[in-house]
Amino acid sequence: MSGQTLTDRIAAAQYSLTGSEVSRAVCKATTHEQTAPKKKHLEFLIQATQESNVNVPQMADTLFERAGNASWVVVFKALLTTHHLMVHGNERFVQFLASRNTLFNLSNFLDKTGSHGYDMSTFIRRYSRYLNEKAFAYRQMAFDFGRVKKGAEGVMRTMSVEKLLKGMPTLQSQIDALLEFDVHPQELNNGVINACFLLLFKDLIKLYACYNDGIINLLEKFFQMKRSQCKDGLEIYKRFLTRMTRVSEFFKIAEQVGIDKNDIPELTQAPESLLESLETHLNTLEGKKP
Fold first, then answer.
1. What global pTM score does this model have?
2. How many helices (H) and strands (E) are present in the chain, helices listed first?
3. Percent of the chain whose pLDDT exceeds 90
4. How far is it, in rounded angstroms, from Cα 50 to Cα 84?
5. Per-residue pLDDT tens for 44-54?
6. Would you call 197 helix, strand, or coil by DSSP?
7. Residue 236 and residue 15: Cα distance in Å, rounded?
8. Residue 192 CB neighbours (<10 A)
């Protein structure tokens, strides 16, 4: 289905009558057209999050309302618009989402209007789980992994052991939820899911940078940590190794669908001897003989 439907026009007109330009822009960003939300509507909403007189809860409620639609296209675009605002909007938008007990309750969503609806419903359920996890991570950490400073002076590199051991599992859960989107190149077959994949790809690059920083910090501190901390740290490191394979697979799909190779980070494999030396150190602390 292409073009705005009568329902789209009525929804937008209702908000025109009530005078809510923001809600009207949400409706325009989440039409039944099988294309990504238009840039002009997204930019309007991003700008709106910066304005102190704009009601962010009302904006979020309109997005949740659109996510309650029966059509996979409208729901997917509501999630896409929310994701876009979480990344590019004022931080108070993410703060508001993180303060809510529930965000998207789409674990049973199913559009039965055709085989395409069935296929896309699977990705909607996975995508909504990721956005819920992204908001939950913000609530846990009081910052967004995607927005914080990276590198030697970055948040994850300079974090204390206690905070790091609490923060890394939260980061791992967000990365897991993203990787569970689990799409294959042939399934990236319309403008909506393609726009979603691009946003997930950009998120993963930032999350991976944080993850890497956290692991470097963990390894630098490992041999000075207490026994119980070493035990937790070793588990975090082992999980990191298994996730690297999955991150690498995601990046391969990005390359296959035409994302510039220069935009894809190279993953370097840690030597196995490193894991062995961490395990040996923990065994020593626990009084086990080699």
1. 0.91
2. 11, 0
3. 79
4. 14
5. 999 999 998 88
6. helix
7. 48
8. 24
Whole-Å CA distances, 245 to 22, 196, 217, 273: 42, 22, 21, 18
Output the CA–CA distances (angstroms, integers) from residue 256 to 184, 186, 217, 241, 251, in the order listed: 10, 10, 33, 23, 9
Place of tokens 């073009």: 3
DSSP notation for 30-93: T-SSSSPPPHHHHHHHHHHHH-TTS-HHHHHHHHHHHTTSS-HHHHHHHHHHHHHHHHHS-HHH
Task: Give the span between the Cα atoms of 30 and 37, in whole angstroms.
Answer: 6
CA-CA-CA-CA dihedral for 80, 120, 144, 155, to nearest 10: -130
In whole angstroms, give the CA distance from residue 40 to residue 45: 9
| Residue 115 near residue 175, CB atoms below 8 Å | no
Sole residue written with tokens 């052991």: 161
The residue type of 166 is: K
